[in-house]
Write a structure and sequence with these properties.
This protein is mostly helical and 151 residues long. The chain has 4 helices and 4 strands; from the N terminus they run H-H-E-E-H-E-E-H.
């Protein structure tokens, strides 16, 4: 039972996930600090108010609703999402597109029917595997594998 737990903990993806959570927590603290230090005061300058939403609240009857906490959390979320997208997701997508290998087209994947026995054969075939009739290969299929089409 303990060996199974040890194998689970020492698996690479569990350790990577734990590191990711730790880095994510630290990143969230940085974004929240940045939001409180710079973004909310800038919003306060733009709106002519204090800018610190964490103390904003309203009272309905005897119940206090601290809506400022929700606004601060929403601002921190938008900043976190923007930073993650523009600094991590978008650049990594460009790198992956640059280094992605073009998938080689499988010349046998394109099919057609044999004109004699009407059995499905590869488009580049020059002879039917079923009735052994000679057939003319389709030029587009030949071009895909680098063989020039006969004129």
């Amino acid at each position: 039972m303990l060996n199974g737990f040890k194998d689970f903990i020492l698996r690479g993806n569990v350790i990577s996930m734990a590191i990711g959570l730790a880095v994510g927590t630290a990143f969230t603290a940085v974004v929240t600090g940045f939001s409180k230090a710079f973004i909310t005061p800038l919003i306060g300058l733009a709106t002519g108010s204090v800018g610190d939403f964490s103390e904003a609240k309203f009272t309905l009857g005897k119940t206090v609703f601290p809506y400022g906490l929700a606004i601060s959390a929403a601002i921190a979320f938008v900043i976190t999402a923007a930073v993650l997208y523009f600094l991590i997701v978008a650049p990594l997508a460009k790198v992956q597109d640059r280094f992605a290998k073009a998938e080689a087209a499988d010349p046998k994947s394109e099919k057609r029917d044999c004109p004699r026995c009407f059995t499905e054969i590869p488009a580049i075939a020059s002879r039917c595997a079923h009735c052994t009739s000679e057939v003319e290969p389709i030029a587009t299929g030949l071009e895909k594998i680098g063989v020039p089409a006969a004129r």
